[in-house]
Amino acid sequence: MATQVIETEVQDPLMEYLEDPFLHHLFTQVRKAGAIKGISVDLTHLCNLRCEGCCFFTDDLDQNAAPKDDAEFEALIAQEKARGTNYITAVGGEPTLMLDRLRKLAQNFWMIVVTNGMIKIPYEGFENITISVSLWGDRETDKKLRGGGKLDVFSKALKNYKDDRRVFWYYTTTAGNAHEIERVVEQCVENGNFIIFNFYGDKAGLGGVYDDDRGFADVRHEIDRMIARYPDRILMTSYMNQVFTTGQMYDETWGYDVCPCISENRLENAARFQNGKPYNLHFRAYNPDAKSTRTCCTSEHPDCSTCYQTWSQIGWIMLNMERHLGSKQEFTNWLTTMYMFYLTARAIDFEAGVQVLPEIHRRVNSL
């Protein structure tokens, strides 16, 4: 989920840290791109899969139908452009079921589209978007969780997006299946794509290897190994990995009271807005009707105990720059998180940006 870059004047101790030419380069690229003002939009309430534990269905978000009239959708685009929105996370449902509306978003905003990969997004008209292809494990695990035990979604998506530079795999790892990670990442890299990790919250109550109460220590270790092995392909740092898998950042614990991706126009969030923790002043999560919004990016009634939403946790780091100014290493961890987000949003030149990924990974420390 999008958040806003810090726009204050550079002051000590930043001046000292930015004497490092590499950090100065990253900081300059982010500042040059300017503030990302983002929202999420459910393009449709329909999906061609029904994945186990998908928050869209477990929270009954599919009960809100998309408008049949294109004019209503175009009114949302006009409204958000007037509000200053420049970045869209297109979700659903399955957004590729609405390619015409997806194309309209691509014509007006920076955009990332989250898809199950079953329908190939064409290149023409979508040249500058980022495509986040969902993946929940190796073929056996992914088939069980997303393919109803029969459909090999992973193989279909690999074929659809072979050597597509727009694509990264949004690999939702399960707590008890750390042993799958290496081979899955190998296949994604061999397919010519990039990888970001997410973490499975067992909203479906499957238990066993899917139970997030087991913790993600083994998963964290394997992800760090993959970062070391493929530093030019992993769009997530070891510091991000540490924060996401532990739910801890300094003395704060992940949850609703620190989550930045809550709809700014919902009165239900008033107490959260006033608790002193930073939040995204611009963010809204639109339902498929293109009018109403829900409480946060994933739910109308959020249960943060099973939420490991990578994009929201990225925002948590990004909006806490001041907490990361205690040392050059802490600032490096914060700045590289910012840079990774801007890179995936393609707010900075993607092909130039990925060239510095190995140096980013070399410098980051999970503390």
Automatic annotation (TrEMBL):
CDD domains in UniProt: Radical_SAM (cd01335)
Keyword Kinase found: no
A GO MF label: iron-sulfur cluster binding
Entry keywords, A to Z: Iron, Iron-sulfur, Metal-binding, S-adenosyl-L-methionine
Transmembrane segments: none
InterPro entries named among the record's database cross-references: Aldolase_TIM, Radical_SAM_PqqE_MftC-like, rSAM, rSAM_sf
Protein name: Radical SAM protein
Organism expressing this protein natively: Nostoc punctiforme NIES-2108
